[in-house]
What does this fold into?
Amino acid sequence: MPSRTVVKTDKAPPPLPVYSQAIVCNGMVYCSGQVAISPETKAMVEGGIADRTTQCFRNLSAVLEEAGSSMQNVVRVGVFLTDMTNFAAMNKVYETFFEDPKPCRTCVAVKELPMRTDVEIECIAHL
It folds into this structure.
C-alpha cells in the first residue's frame, strides 16, 4: 500500500478536522479546496471575485510549497463558482498563475460554498 504524507502549513488557512490541506502520495500532491481566507487575519479577503481567486491561489501555492512542489507542477485544477457570471474575471486571474501548457481544469457552478464565498479552488500537482 502506498504511503500517504499529510501536508500542513501555517501559510494557508488551517483545515477543519475532517480533512487535510493536502496529501502527498506516489509523487503527487492532492490539495483540498481553498477558499479566500487570509492566513494572517483568518478572515475572508474583501473585494471582488478577482481578489478572492488570487487568495485561493496564494493559499494553494503555500500548501504546494510546503509539500515540496509548486504551481508550475500543477496538472489538474478544479474551480467551483457560485455564479458563472464570474467566469471571465476568475479566468483573468487564473491565467496569471499558470504558464503554458496550462493544467487540465474543470470549472463548475455550485449552489453554495463554505463561508458563503463565491469561489473555491482545488488542485493536483507532481513533486
DSSP finds two helices and six strands in the chain.
